[in-house]
Amino acid sequence: MEENLRRDSHRAQSSYRELEISSRGTCLSEVEGWLAYLKARVFWTSNLAISHENCGLFVYKISKYIHGLAARGVHYIHRPGPTLQDVGFIVLPELGLDKAYISETLFSFIFLSFFLWTFHPFIFKSKKIYTVLVWCRVLAFLVASQILRVLTFYSTQLPGPNYHCREGSKLARLPPPNSAFEVFLLNFPRGVIYGCGDLIFSSHMIFTLVFVLTYQKYGTRRCIKQLAWLLAVIQSFLIVASRKHYTVDVVVAWYTVNLVVFFIDKKLPELPDRSGGASLLLPLTAKDKDGRTKEENHKLLNGNSGDPADWRQRTQVNGKILEDGNTVHADGAMNGA
């Protein structure tokens, strides 16, 4: 009896060791697979970034400096005066200096959320967007919008409604520069935060609307899209309530940025399909391989070729990713059904 118990105990311990070793091997293989995937993603994106190095990052940096230079230049010619009559100022109560940070906090949240979303393919095994190409489009929208903004606020200078731009404030007017170097230095970030005169139209709304419109096109979560538009509207009210801009600055930004994005987006080449040849560089698990084989057979039955260049998602129509949970069939949508 004791021998049988010892034998059973020994077998149980051996089975437990084998199971433990097997589970460790499975965990290690999962970790190694994820690391290989991440390495392939970085490799692919690096190559993509090199091939698109002229997409606009350097141009954006130059235009950003020129925009800052123009904003500082208009501060020299800014003349403080009585705050203009504004419908938004009448309707919305003034937040005051102690609550002016609310607008900046919401803007920072929108900016950070969009930035993290564009880099989510590095963490999750998503094949929806190319991070580099999305930012190329975003930078193109921002450059065009800021050029129009510089032309607009230099055309007519309005007395700034912000607290540090009103009559009696020492920051409302800049003293004449002692040298050209003082002008080109920009006094960052103080010169940017306490600028005056660069009003029409709002720079905060440029960034907010460009981010929202980009996610509207390439995002997949309908609820997040609706939340993004709601936050953009709230941001508009907060900018006026904090007296950083007149209502006209926000209104002009709404239709100008939308038009800029609409026309430039039609000129830029559409993003390539992420389900194409790029995915061949990524390591596949056995489950993914089985799924890909079934997908290839299904597409061959539907009349698609087996060429990897023809592997495209049925839910992608005219370069737009349909939202999750959309019940409309893509082929029917393309046929007008």
TrEMBL record:
One of its GO terms (molecular function) is ceramide cholinephosphotransferase activity. This is Sphingomyelin synthase-like domain-containing protein. GO terms for biological process: ceramide biosynthetic process. GO terms for cellular component: endoplasmic reticulum membrane; Golgi membrane; plasma membrane; trans-Golgi network. Pfam families: PAP2_C. It is found in: Membrane. It is a multi-pass membrane protein. The chain crosses the membrane at residues 100-117, 129-148, 192-215. Keywords: Lipid metabolism, Membrane, Sphingolipid metabolism, Transferase, Transmembrane, Transmembrane helix. It comes from the Eukaryota. Residues 195-263 form the Sphingomyelin synthase-like domain. InterPro entries: Sphingomyelin_synth-like (IPR045221), Sphingomyelin_synth-like_dom (IPR025749). Its main location: membrane. Belongs to the sphingomyelin synthase family.
